[in-house]
Amino acid sequence: MKIPDIIIAIDGYSSTGKSTFAKLIAKHFGFTYLDSGALYRAVTLFAMESGWISADKKINLAALEKGLAGLDAHFGEGGTYIGTRCVEKEIRTLEVSGNVSPVAAIPFVRAYVDARLHAFGEQGRVVMDGRDIGTAVFPDAQLKIFMTARDDVRARRRYDEMVMKGEQPVLEDVLKNLKERDYIDSHRETNPLRQAEDAFVLDNSEMELHEEVRHSGIMALQVEIDPRSGFCGGVIRAISKAEEFLEAHPGEPLYSVGDIVHNEAELERLEGKGLRTVSKESMPAGQTLLIRAHGEPPATYARARELGCRVIDCTCPVVLQLQGIIREAYARVKPLGGQLIIFGKIGHAEVLGLVGQVDGDALVVENEAMLDEAIAAGRIDFSKPVEVFSQTTKSPSGYAAICSRLHDRMARPEDLRVHDTICRQVASRHAQLADFARGHDVIIFVSGRQSSNGKVLFDLCRGANERSWQIGSPDELQPEWFRDGDRVGVCGATSTPKWLLEDVAQKILQEK
Q1: How far, in Å, CA of 223 to CA of 6, rounded?
Q2: CATH of domain 238-310
Q3: CATH code for 318-422?
């Protein structure tokens, strides 16, 4: 079970069970648990043992600030360490508790701890609890929880905890200490304890741990992004080339012949950088043109030369190779009266580029029904050589069915030549994606509405999991698609950017 590499920030008053709750969440999702309060306690213990906190709780600020330069407080196996010494037990005493709030209120102490927390948490996949994690340390944390409880309940919890450790506390002293800490934490000048505006409030005064879990709904956060979804190599190359040009030529437009990628959100992002989309009929004279990964027919290059345009050719190497193979096959079968058949989407840019290699002299079929229509109309001569190709992003099973039909009809089966032209990255995706869809309760498939590959892959997901939904942006998510405890899989087409998959996953987490 996986969710994106996010930070979960848990803030609140002392003795509300933040650490217990955070540890449970971290274990459930395989995240790292970081107890920020433990670092403040370690600094406090360090100051106490160094003699920098007097009996009347006055702190030698100069000595402490100088001492922090050499202090190595960190997390390790078994808890919190100062250097190589585990101090997990020492930092939980009532004496440390009585001094930690004044120490934690010191700006340079907070800066010291914040720097260490950032170093631990910057890679994500952490659960961190404290007083100001969601408001100051990681204000952009994707999930924030603020925990609170009545004073008497918190005091009793702290008292019971200390008794279990063999201490002999007085309940009134524990309550007094809590109230003093609350006041100091809430009124300190630097990053006071407060609820983040976007935090979920969890008052657990009358709750057991299992009730907290159910009330928070956090255990329903079971979202996994398919690691193999996202841009294919050809699209990555085209977008990289476009961005390189736009960055090197600020203010100069770059014209893509057709959409560089069939994804509305990514197109909008690139348009903001200066990319413009034009049709073959409206290519501007003397400008820089980008040929996208789908490729173009020879006529497009000829027209660009006539217009005096500079061309950045980003045709996918797999497509470029296929174009060459089709030209060779045509030269081979045409003198024999044979023909070429292409399994692909009529009007798709890649298919137009393939057909253009032979001046349109190829039969394009989208499915078995269309093949049957061509056969019935006598458009295929099965007594002559036939060579068949597939658009690089089509379904392997669909292509196999087309080839089988042709094979069964051939007068001489040896006159049928089948070319393996589906992109390896796409071909291997089908079985993997079907397994991914079956392995989750709900599938959210993200792709542009114009993506041919997106339609094929979404149909595959829907066939493997009827609770599959296709969206183009996080705003299209519907609450009724999800149930408590669902394992949600987020995946997409070869034209779907990773950042969009991550945005969708985070929106699900935030709303559930």
Answers
A1: 11
A2: 3.40.50.11270
A3: 3.40.1010.20
Structure token digits, residue 285: 């004279």
Q: Determine whether 350 is an active site residue.
A: yes
User: 3-state class of 170 per DSSP?
Assistant: coil
Q: In the chain, helix, strand, coil percent, each to 5?
A: 50, 15, 35
Same topology, domains 238-310 and 318-422? Answer is no
CB 492 within 8 A of CB 446: yes
Rg (CA), the chain: 32
The CATH fold of domain 7-214: Rossmann fold (3.40.50)
Helix (H) or strand (E) holding 271: helix 264-271
Two tokens, residue 209: 């741990």
- Indicate which residue of 212, 296, 350, 387 is catalytic: 350
Dist. CA 391–CA 426, nearest whole Å: 11
Q: Which two tokens stand for residue 256?
A: 């893509």
233 by Cβ neighbours in 10 Å (0-12 / 13-18 / 19+) ranks as: middle
Long-range CB contacts for residues 179-183, cutoff 8 Å, separation at least 24: 179/151, 180/98, 180/101, 181/14, 181/97, 181/100, 181/101, 182/13, 182/14, 182/151
Question: Domain locations in the chain?
Answer: 7-214, 238-310, 318-422
Q: What average pLDDT is seen over the chain? A: 91
Residues in the chain: 512
* Residue pLDDT, tens place only, 330-383: 999 999 999 999 999 999 999 999 999 999 999 999 999 999 999 999 999 999
